[in-house]
Design goal:
Blueprint: H1 14-27, E1 68-77, E2 80-84, E3 91-94, E4 115-122, E5 130-133, H2 134-152, E6 155-163, E7 167-172, E8 175-180, E9 199-208, E10 213-217, H3 218-236, E11 242-251, E12 254-258, E13 263-267, E14 288-297, E15 302-306, H4 318-321, E16 327-336, E17 339-343, E18 349-353, E19 374-383, E20 388-392, H5 394-404, H6 416-452
Parallel strand pairs: 3-5, 13-15, 18-20
Antiparallel strand pairs: 1-2, 1-4, 2-3, 4-5, 6-7, 6-9, 7-8, 9-10, 11-12, 11-14, 12-13, 14-15, 16-17, 16-19, 17-18, 19-20
């Protein structure tokens, strides 16, 4: 068999290839046209702000409906009230907008020259006036006032206009409110009618504008006012001041005095330069007196007062008025275990020790003298710095006996026995002085124990 000749590979001619390229080019789609751009809108020019008012117009204020402004009454007549509110047009208050209550004439509510608050109802009516309302301004002021007082817990003063079964109707600076009977501070069997016409302290406890209700409390205000008054007086008090007060209460240890909201104590020792056993010896409840401020404790709210500081101090001249060995009159005031206290002239007191009450020994002061007795006493010692005067009845009696006894024959020198008596007298004198001081200190301690008890 003869072999087949090998197949020759096909090669396209250059002409054919070029033709296809041209055909491809001829059939290609043209490029899509670009969308036309929309023209941008021209930027709007900002309107220029109106020029500010100048000249005469610049003196006026700008208002709008709903504003509350102040104005001066220019004219009052039956048709209404003309008001200058510092605006380009005057304001007009119709008669019905003057007040909640209907007055007989506008003059009963306002007068020419009055400066009042008004509410702007309409900035301009057809006549060119600004329409105003005083009634609305008063209404808005009322609720603002009440709300401010409620939130700030302000203390108010109000006049009681009427007593109802359930409480009191009050007026607080033109604003009416109601005080329930349970919130009225009464004393004893005091009735609500007794409050009509009074000015009382009040505190707002409820504001309900929707219901048109303002509720106040006299009890809460009274408590806060008392505290406020107390703090105010305490801050004003200074040591050394002289204050007017009223005696409120007497205790065994002193007297309480009301200084107008703050009570101070006059201790028993500060009532008089004399010794006082009970304040009733000097004062009684209800007395109005001047007192001297000795101390102020603002933290504990305590005030110490004195009464004797406003009286002359008799001890200043005691050493000039009384000298040792002087014999004077004295009135027996009271007894102590160690002797008797006697009143001298010039507001001074002295102590007669139990050993000086009589020539013979006594166990009780009442065995020798009685309260109220006026006796002759001898001044033994005067100690102004310690406020003490030592007295003796015994020495007066001994001197009287000596004068009554027949005279002794004079001797040239004292005997040993006489010398011994003289030394003993000196020792006894020292013992008496010591005993008197201890006795007075003991009495002071007893008074202190009584006060604590």
């Amino acid at each position: 068999m003869s072999e087949k000749p090998a197949a020759t590979p096909f090669k396209p001619s250059p002409v054919a290839v070029e033709t296809k390229k041209e055909e491809f080019k001829a059939t290609s789609l043209p490029p899509a046209p670009k969308p036309a751009e929309k023209p941008k809108p021209a930027a709007k020019e900002k309107a220029a702000p109106p020029p500010p008012p100048s000249g005469y117009e610049a003196t006026f204020k700008e208002y709008k409906a709903g504003d509350i402004v102040r104005g001066k009454v220019l004219k009052v007549d039956p048709s209404g009230v003309l008001v200058d509110i510092n605006y380009k047009a005057d304001g007009l208050i119709p008669t019905e907008e003057l007040s909640d209550r209907q007055p007989g004439s506008p003059e009963e509510v306002v007068k020419v020259g009055d400066v009042i608050s008004v509410y702007i109802e309409n900035i301009e009516n057809k006549e060119g006036y600004v329409v105003l309302s005083k009634r609305r301004a008063d209404y808005e002021r009322k609720w603002k006032f009440a709300l401010d007082a409620y939130h700030k817990r302000t203390l108010l003063s109000g006049k009681v206009l009427q007593a109802l079964k359930g409480g009191l109707v009050v007026d607080c600076d033109g604003i009416r409110g109601f005080v329930p009977a349970s919130q009225v501070t009464k004393t004893g069997e005091e009735s609500l009618d007794a409050f009509v016409g009074r000015v009382i302290s009040l505190k707002v406890i409820e504001v309900n504008q929707r219901q048109g209700k303002i509720v106040l409390s006299n009890k809460m205000a009274a408590g806060e006012k008392e505290k406020s008054d107390t703090d105010k007086i305490l801050n004003e008090l200074e040591v050394g001041q002289v204050r007017r007060g009223k005696v409120k209460n007497l205790k065994t240890f002193g007297a309480f005095v009301d200084l107008g909201g703050v009570e101070g104590l006059i201790h028993l020792s500060e009532l008089s330069w004399k010794r006082v056993k009970h304040p009733s010896e000097v004062l009684k409840s209800g007395d109005e007196i001047d007192v001297f401020v000795l101390g102020v404790d603002r933290t504990n709210k305590k005030v110490s007062l004195g009464l004797k500081e406003l009286q002359p101090d008799p001890w200043v001249n005691a050493a000039e008025l009384y000298k040792p060995k002087q014999i004077v009159k004295a009135k027996i005031l009271r007894f102590a275990k160690f002797g008797a206290f006697a009143e001298l002239e010039h507001g001074l007191e002295g102590l007669i020790h139990i050993s000086e009450l009589s020539i013979r020994p006594v166990q009780n002061p009442g065995d020798a003298v009685k309260i109220g007795d006026v006796v002759d006493v001898k001044i033994l010692r005067v100690l102004p710095e310690e406020q003490r005067i030592g007295l003796s009845i015994k020495d007066v009696l001994l001197e009287r006996e000596k004068k009554a006894a027949p005279p002794k024959e004079p001797t040239t020198a004292p005997t040993a026995e006489e010398k011994k008596i003289t030394i003993g007298d000196m020792i006894a004198e020292k013992e008496r002085a010591r005993a008197e001081k201890e006795a007075e200190e003991a009495e002071s301690e007893e008074e202190g124990f009584e006060e604590v008890a």
